Amino acid sequence: MPRGRYSLHDPHDHAPLGEEHFHCATGPSGWRYVSQLTSPSGEHSGSVDLTLDERGRPLRLELNAASWRVRGAALEGVTWVRTDPAGEHATEGNVAAHSFTGASPAFLIATARLLRLAPGAPATRVRLVAFTAPVLAPRTLDQSWALLDRAAHPTDSGPLTVDEYEVTALDTGERHSVHIAGDVVLAAPGIELEDLESPPSTFA
Asked: Is 202 exposed, middle or buried (0-12, 13-18, 19+ CB in 10 A)?
């Protein structure tokens, strides 16, 4: 069960956004990721709880930030309920999309797991619903993902397979690289892996 800590920063001006303390695990029915977020000052700022089925689809998502809450799942596309801080109003949304995304590294793992790309294969287009801080506002976006390279790197506990993805935002054409080993993001824009207590899990 990988357990560790990511530091988060603005990918444009590198301003620190805080840290994400996580643990995740694979199982016979899929994968689960749970994390707690802290602000740059160290105060609790939110949480992520994401469960995928064996095909990489979101069985359950719960996000909390600034007292806002989102609960979602794959249902007729993706469906979610967003609740305000006072808990007086809840709005439901549904989009013909493949999955969810957001600032958490969990969503990069989820998208990679959903697409299951082969090295050198053509880029694949995916539609996602993003929940953006600080109020978890939903936004539908389209990306293309391509698996550029898969390489094994020697470590003290054996070879570590690292996948390098190229992700393109189709509305702006902006491209960036994402490096993933098993169910851990090694590097991505705005994300740095600072601490990892055990090796990444591998998907069957």
From this structure: exposed
Contacts of 148 (CB under 8 A, 6+ apart): 119, 120, 164, 165, 166, 177
- SS3 state of residue 80: strand
Q: What is the pLDDT of residues 22-34, one digit of tens each?
A: 999 998 889 999 9
Interval 38-67: pLDDT, tens: 999 999 999 999 999 999 999 999 999 989
- Torsion over CA of 164, 170, 174 and 176, rounded to 10 degrees? -10
What are the structure tokens assigned to 146, written together? 């391509």
Q: 123 with 95: CB under 8 angstroms?
A: no
Q: Which alpha helices (H) appear in 84-127, and where do they start and end?
A: 105-115
DSSP tag of 199: P
Closest of 141, 137, 140, 3 to residue 65, by C-alpha? 137
How far is 15 from 3, CA to CA, in rounded Å?
Answer: 25
